Amino acid sequence: MKTQIVIIGGGPSGLLLSQLLHTRGIESIVLERKTKDYVLGRIRAGVLEHGLHEMMREAGVSDRIDAEGLPHDGTMISYGDERFRIDFEALTGHKVMVYGQTEVTRDLYAAREKAGGAIEFNVEDVQIHDADSDAPYVTYRVGDERRRIDCDYIAGCDGFHGVSRQAIPLSKRREFEKVYPFGWLGILSETPPVHHELIYANSPRGFALCSMRNANLSRYYIQCSLSDKPEDWTDDAFWMELKRRIPSDFVKELVTGPSIEKSIAPLRSFVTEPMQYGRLFLCGDAAHIVPPTGAKGLNTAASDVYYLYHALREFYGTGSKAGIESYSTKALARVWKAERFSWWFSSLLHRYPDQSEFDIKMQVAELAFLRSNEAAQKAMAENYVGLPY
Ligand code: FAD
Ligand code: DHB
């Protein structure tokens, strides 16, 4: 087989890239290790920057998000019983959109299927060959059959545990990592959200986040120990702990109910440099991970897709390789800013096992400063709604 771009990974980055390329007549084949239902079953991000929303419009997949997405023009931050609001719209002129990653992926699959896009599911043993030559190719197995695709370029959109990053020789890449000493226990419940905006809560018992997917679907998270297992937490125990971490007037509004999903995610900051090796480009979680605080994971994956899509569009449209050659530099410049924001916002809101009384005073002072200082709020809001591409 032959195509222009082989895309490894059918998560949000791979699908968005494939759909955007399709709008410009650039052909791709997506290789996904799992089934479509498996990919759609993963509950992950929920807040989309305006830049990702714009890209969905450009990709022709925005009908549902335009109709059903929840525009949010601010967020609440609490510490103990204190709380304040950051007004994104007033500070930056932008909003974010609350719309689940599951729905983004569903819309993209529907569009790829409608366009007759090539997606191979259940692929095994994907291998990248000759990425540093002018004739790269990818091999993989479906059942007992081994297949080969020759291509111009390869997009590694296969997440943190994929094969693409490993295809860059160790002598050519550097990795930077910070592992956090706690996780997030998240639940989804068919209950109305406690508040019409998200609540990021710093409390003496640890972080909590009240989020949502729609008017009758809430997403809540609490900081937990890395040794905890989701089955250790009954729904009652979860709700009780959440109530101890958010301001008391919100507790009164909280509607509880059975969880329909419960999972624990570890927190990690990770970046690999460069994000490019010959004709192989890394996109999204394949190249970098952020702790979820501030919802930058999916959004940073989307900014990589933006740079790569524009680079490939330029190449196939004009023959210029300028965008292709600067992909890694441009993508990393924005990635590191998202890493900084996610690390800062995580540090501001969590309890750390080795935190001293002084460290806690510093957190409270920083929260009080953020509460009262417009310049600090503007910096937070600009990062939250998404830095320019
Ligand atoms: P992925 O979504 O990981 O997609 C990669 C795809 O590649 C997967 O479908 C995988 O099956 C496939 N794949 C892997 N290896 C291979 C292979 N060898 N061959 C073929 N296919 C392969 N972000 C937020 O902003 N907010 C959140 O609340 C949040 N929660 C998260 C919870 C968890 C448990 C995780 C893991 C991530 C979370 N994130 C969150 C991050 C966000 O979901 C990711 O940044 C986003 O999914 C990145 O998209 P991606 O397409 O780059 O990678
Ligand atoms: C969600 C997750 C986040 O990490 C965040 O900062 C905001 C919202 C969510 O899943 O809804």
UniProtKB/TrEMBL annotation:
Keywords: FAD, Flavoprotein, Monooxygenase, Oxidoreductase. Residues 2-342 form the FAD-binding domain. It comes from the Bacteria. The keyword Flavoprotein applies. The keyword Repressor does not apply. InterPro entries: FAD-bd (IPR002938), FAD/NAD-bd_sf (IPR036188), HB_mOase (IPR012733), RIFMO-like (IPR050641). SUPFAM superfamilies: FAD-linked reductases, C-terminal domain (SSF54373), FAD/NAD(P)-binding domain (SSF51905). One of its GO terms (biological process) is benzoate catabolic process. One of its GO terms (molecular function) is FAD binding. Its EC number is 1.14.13.2. Signal peptide: none annotated. It is an enzyme of class 1 (oxidoreductase). This is 4-hydroxybenzoate 3-monooxygenase.
